[in-house]
Specification:
Elements lengths: L1 E7 L27 H7 L11 E5 L3 H10 L6 E5 L5 H15 L4 E6 L3 E2 L2 H16 L3 E6 L10 E9 L5 E11 L4 H10 L2 E11 H11 L1 H12 L2 E3 L2 E3 L2 H5 L6 H6 L5 E6 L3 E2 L4 H6 L9 E3 L2 E4 L5 E4 L4 E4 L4 E5 L4 E5 L6 H10 L10 E4 L2 E9 L2 E8 L7 E3 L4 E8 L2 E5 L2 E5 L4 E4 L5 E4 L6 E8 L9 E4 L5
Parallel strand pairs: 1-2, 1-4, 2-3, 3-11, 6-12, 14-16, 15-17, 16-18
Antiparallel strand pairs: 4-9, 5-13, 6-9, 7-8, 7-9, 8-12, 10-11, 18-19, 20-21, 21-22, 22-29, 23-30, 24-27, 24-29, 25-26, 25-28
Helix pairs in contact: 3-6, 3-7, 6-7
Length: about 475
């Protein structure tokens, strides 16, 4: 069977300020009403002998990934949680070890969760072709037919054509070599030659051959992943890899670990309208534009403006007399950059990390398994949040050492526990949570619960939460 392995561990720092560590680009709706992760999953149905997907994601994103899969009614075969990011080779290795036990003849369709593919029928045809190549004993990768001399991608040089079972050209080739991101002149020569493809980071692997090549070329990775998988444990609907072994695993891409060393690499040319959406300019390239070459999302007004990408997340944005700009507005940050400098957005994230600020980590709207909260206002010794609790969900039973809280129900019904007292609150009713009191919030109704929380105290950080009971196992 064909087993999709979906890798969802990236951070997408070049798409800041929309992409954040706690809510990375694969979870964002950038090209449609669906997230990139959801689009990745929904382009799979229709492939032959298709198994449910194996998801590999960062443990911090587990509830978001699960919720987005539930929204599109796709259930994973397993949702593996990486305790720490270790690049693609370990993520693929643990999936291969897991699937080898279930299906020794498995073919792994390895996909990133944050790519854009415009031509889904062509993509599916390439997958079928790559599966045939893999069944003939090759580690197949998808080489994107280049449309321009791109310096932001690595390249694959093709070698000899591979024969099909009927001795005709299969449309696939051996890999002559992988090459790093080139300068412009080199990229132009690659394009002119017709022998080079963009390295997509998508693969079809026969599971047994992949494990043999990992054993030969990356034995430390395979050993660490095997140990981590052996001691993995179930956590609600998630499969947690053992932390110590996986944390000790070398961090390498599958290209460095295997594909650049193996004698069995093959490339399938793919002309599928692909982009890894690695920057705002790349996203602009793949969006429908107005008559002046602009892409605008949200509430905007554009006058005498050309070739811009503008995203108004919460507030009205007006652009007058500008061109070739990226303008991204969120509740807590605004990015303005020249389109040809969009790769440098990562430097903003690096600065935010160095200065120990929070704008690279979370949005003001923060998602939790029970719902979400959003910062409204903050000052000395106080903070105001808007809290939404989904029907039937409840927060942990908890207390705080440094703050008291006041809750006001805006809509819905709240069941509130404070120490030994349980009260039911309706719209416009409120309750005070003293410092040190054990408390819990529960939505027993059938509609979302919305309330305003006012925190007061000398320290208001999220780490001042002592949980004694939590249905989500946090």
């Amino acid at each position: 069977m064909l087993h999709p392995v979906i890798l969802s561990g990236g951070s997408g720092s070049r798409l800041w300020p929309l992409s954040r560590t706690a809510f990375p680009k694969q979870l964002l709706a950038l090209t449609s009403e669906l997230s990139l992760l959801q689009e990745t999953l929904l382009r799979l149905p229709g492939l032959p002998d298709l198994a449910p997907p194996v998801m590999v994601c960062n443990h911090e994103h587990r509830f978001l990934v699960a919720e987005q899969m539930r929204e599109i009614e796709i259930a994973p075969q397993v949702l593996m949680l990486e305790p720490v990011g270790r690049n693609t080779a370990p993520a693929i290795a643990v999936a291969a070890l897991y699937l080898a036990e279930l299906d020794p003849d498995a073919l792994l369709l390895v996909l990133s969760s944050d790519h854009v593919i415009a031509d889904v029928p062509a993509f599916q045809q390439c997958v079928k072709q790559a599966a045939k190549v893999a069944e003939q004993g090759h580690l197949a990768t998808f080489g994107i037919v280049p449309s321009q001399p791109e310096t932001g991608y690595g390249y694959i040089e093709r070698g000899d054509a591979l024969p099909s079972a009927s001795d005709e050209d299969s449309g696939a080739y051996t890999v002559a070599k992988f090459v790093e991101k080139p300068n412009l002149a080199t990229a132009q020569s690659y394009l002119a030659s017709g022998n080079y493809y963009w390295n997509s980071g998508m693969f079809v692997f026969p599971v047994q051959m992949l494990l043999r090549e990992l054993e030969q070329f990356a034995p430390e990775i395979l050993a660490a992943c095997r140990a981590s998988l052996t001691n993995a444990y179930q956590d609600l609907d998630f499969y947690r890899l053992e932390e110590k072994a996986f944390g000790a695993c070398p961090a390498l891409s599958i290209d460095y670990a295997v594909m650049e060393r193996t004698a069995h690499a093959a490339v399938v040319p793919a002309d599928i309208g692909w982009s890894d959406v690695g920057s705002w300019s790349a996203l602009w390239d793949h969006q429908a534009k107005d008559a002046n070459g602009n892409v605008a999302r949200g509430e905007t007004f554009l006058h005498d403006t050309r070739n811009c990408y503008i995203n108004a997340d919460r507030r009205f944005v007006a652009a007058v007399g500008v061109e070739d700009l990226i303008i991204i507005e969120t509740t807590d940050a605004v990015l303005v950059a020249r389109k040809d400098k969009s790769q440098d957005v990562k430097k903003v994230v690096e600065w935010l990390q160095k200065e120990k600020r929070g704008e690279h980590q979370d949005h003001r709207l923060v998602y939790r398994p029970w719902g979400s909260y959003e910062g409204v206002e903050a000052g000395e010794r106080f903070q105001v949040k808007r809290i939404t609790v989904k029907p039937g969900e409840k927060l942990s039973l908890q207390m705080h050492h440094h703050r008291s809280e006041h809750w006001v129900v805006v809509s819905g019904t709240a069941e509130v526990t404070v120490d030994d007292t349980v009260r039911l609150l309706s719209e416009n009713e409120s309750i005070y949570i003293p410092l040190g009191a054990m408390h819990r919030l529960h939505n027993p109704g059938r509609i979302p619960l919305h309330l305003i929380e006012v925190q007061s105290g000398p320290y208001l950080g999220e780490d001042d939460i002592v949980r004694t009971e939590d249905v989500y196992g946090r």
